[in-house]
């Protein structure tokens, strides 16, 4: 198995996970928010709307990964994954700042950022 193949598998798993998370925010926002690390008051219509917004954007972000994979744009995919690493890094800070679970902040979002950095590095190897 080549480094590029490993990187593509990792990128595909990242894309699939982001689509799944996005769909969960649309379909089951309370469960998704708990998994994110910050609870929502779904009695508030605005909270449900924000969950849907996040969900749709996550789905689109995951699909961008698949589009780049399908095009065979390995280096471009690497740069996009590297740039997108800011999302789980910011998510870590948001959960911590919002008084959410430290284990979710670091164990979910922090680990995701690390996996994305490794994936980007593998994709950007000449």
UniProtKB/TrEMBL annotation:
Keywords: Membrane, Transmembrane, Transmembrane helix. The chain crosses the membrane at residues 6-27, 63-84, 104-125. It comes from the Bacteria. InterPro entries: DUF4267. This is Membrane protein.
